[in-house]
Amino acid sequence: MIPFELPSALAEDVQPGADLVAIDPREHALDCLTDYADILYGDIVLVPFKDNEPDWPNTDRDTIEKFAGHWSEIELGDVPRLGILTDSFARFLGKGDDTSVVTLWQNGTPYIRQIGGHPSEAAVGIVMDAIINDEPLQTLPAVVEPPCEEAAPKPRPQPANDNKPKFEPIDAETLLGMEFAPIKYVIPGFVAEGLTILGGRPKLGKSWLALDFGIAVASGGQSLGAECEEGDALYLALEDNKRRLQDRLRVVLPRIKRPNMARLSLQTEAPKIGAGLIEALDAWRKSVPDPRLIIVDTLAIVRPPKGKNQDSYAADYEALSPLQRFASEHRLAVVAVTHVRKAEAEDPLEMISGTNGLTGAADSILILNRTSDGPKLYGRGRDVEEVEKALKFDAGRWSVLGDVDEVKRSGERRQILAALLGATQVMSPAEIATATGMKVGNVNVLLTKMVAAGEVTKAGYGAYYHPDKTAQTG
After folding, report:
1. Is residue 8 within 8 Å of residue 108, measured between CB atoms?
2. What is the pLDDT of residues 288-329, one digit of tens each?
3. Contact at 8 Å (CB) between 365 and 354?
4. Which long-range contacts (CB under 8 A, 24 or more apart) does 237-243 make?
5. How far apart are CA 133 and CA 282, in angstroms?
6. What three-state secondary structure class fits 64?
7. DSSP H/E element including 393
8. Nearest residue to 395 (alpha-carbon basis) of 248, 289, 175, 181
9. Residues 6+ apart with CB under 8 A from 401
């Protein structure tokens, strides 16, 4: 073997007295970059070299050679040419036009060079931070500032809903100066990054709604009237089988111009929380280019059993905490589907089955419910605005009719117009209330608005008629 001086960073793994000939630098370098490639989702490549350094001015996608061979096929002189071609800055920066190469040529430490796209001051620091946080090596060398022309990287924004249990006090002045990344909505207006509980009565359509979320994200389509950014989604349909999932997909997907569903992963079995679920979710996260949404349907199947002497609240909180931490750490949206109690509650959040430990551990709550006014979806959370929408279910898909109050008022207006249209003479508010079953006070309020809008004609004090009819006073 040709003598080769190990870079200082790679030599850190060599024990004193070890036989350096037994450690092939080609194998070690390729191992390092393979680990990084798993994080950055890139291909191992050979970059052009000139005068013993990467020829960056002449480096682009056309001049880079893709490497897919065995480490023994690499010439020792080509070891510094090894690198990763990556477009995965979208994972960290929310943009997809940064093409870069990560190499180990400079003293064996990760060196990042942008070769295409719009430069970002934070790109190098953020990707380096991602490499370090994922810790692909047991002992990662200290990161040095790469000699590039970009300005110094800015601190990486912190997740806005990071609720990890830790005791690290921070003074208010420092907190005021910190930069936090904005909350990312996966289903705009309804589901944001973090853990969301989706509760509803059995057979009401929770699973149809959850599947709609997954389809919208995987195809970059719409859910509940909101446009979703395309990304990768995982749906754990733990109460279904593959045949039933296929049937559901065929019901909701259009037969003509059907979107490509390759970015929606489906699974009908999963381990429990604390027994491999988080590890399985993390493996999926690392296997796809842009993980955005994970749906667990239902929570009851994956939640760990309650401890023998464990308090119910503590059991519920601890059951969900690992999912919440996972979602927050990786800035993903995790939707856990569960049931609600049969009894109505003044506060919709109290309808979730179990103790307040479940709602306390989650970042957001969505309640799918059906009342005398029809189906509706109520939502509330730490980082999302309160929402209450009237829904309609048709052919396996939920759609939004509008705000609950507005839809209810529209329905009441139609009742008033129907009563007036069927009357043989002008009607008083009390007579309208009797005919429609509404409260007189509500009728008075709506009549005032309807007269102003030209929907109802006022014949005199306490006398109203439909504008399509001639007023008749008896």
Report:
1. yes
2. 999 999 999 989 899 888 777 778 888 888 888 899 999 989
3. no
4. 237/207, 237/211, 237/266, 237/267, 237/268, 237/297, 238/267, 238/268, 238/269, 238/270, 238/296, 238/297, 238/298, 238/301, 238/302, 239/207, 239/297, 239/298, 239/301, 240/207, 240/268, 241/268, 242/266, 242/268
5. 14
6. coil
7. strand 387-394
8. 248
9. 389, 390, 391, 392, 407
Q: Is the distance from CB of 321 to CB of 274 less than 8 angstroms?
A: no
Q: Which residue has the tokens 């551990």?
A: 361
Give the predicted TM-score (pTM) of the model. Answer: 0.56
In the chain, the largest separation of any two C-alpha atoms, in whole Å, equals 113
Among 113-127, 235-249, 255-269, 365-379, the range scoring the smallest mean pLDDT is 113-127
CA distances from 460 to 226, 301, 427, 440, 465 (A): 45, 64, 10, 18, 10
Evaluate if residue 127 carries a pLDDT over 70: no
Amino acid at the residue 109: T
Distance CA 36, CA 34 (A): 5
Residue 39 exposed, middle or buried by CB count within 10 Å (0-12, 13-18, 19+): buried
Look up residue 12 and give its DSSP letter: T
Mean pLDDT of the chain: 78
Residue 89 CB: number of other CB atoms within 10 A?
A: 25
- CA–CA distance, 36 with 132 (Å, rounded to integer): 10
* 3-state DSSP helix/strand/coil % of the chain, to nearest 5: 35, 25, 40
In this structure, which amino acid lies at residue 165?
A: P
Report yes or no: 122 and 154 within 8 Å, Cβ to Cβ. Answer: yes
Residue ranges in 339-422 assigned as alpha helix (H): 356-361, 404-422
Q: How far is CA 153 from the centre of its chain?
A: 26
SS3 314: helix
Q: What is the pLDDT of residues 380-413, one digit of tens each?
A: 888 788 888 888 888 889 998 877 766 666 778 7
Integer Cα distance of 358 and 169 in angstroms: 26
Distance between the two ends of the chain, CA-based, in angstroms? 113
| Angular region, 88: left φ>0, alpha ψ -120 to 50, beta rest | alpha
With both helix axes pointing from N to C terminus, report the angle between 25-40 and 123-134 in degrees, rounded to the nearest 10: 110
Q: How far apart are CA 91 and CA 110, in angstroms?
A: 18
CA dist 348 and 359 (Å) reads 11
What is the mean predicted confidence (pLDDT) over 20-46?
A: 70
Peptide bond connecting 109 to the previous residue in cis, omega within 30 degrees of 0: no
Say if residues 46 and 78 touch (Cβ distance below 8 Å): yes
Of 116, 108, 137, 113, give the one whose Cα is nearest residue 127: 113
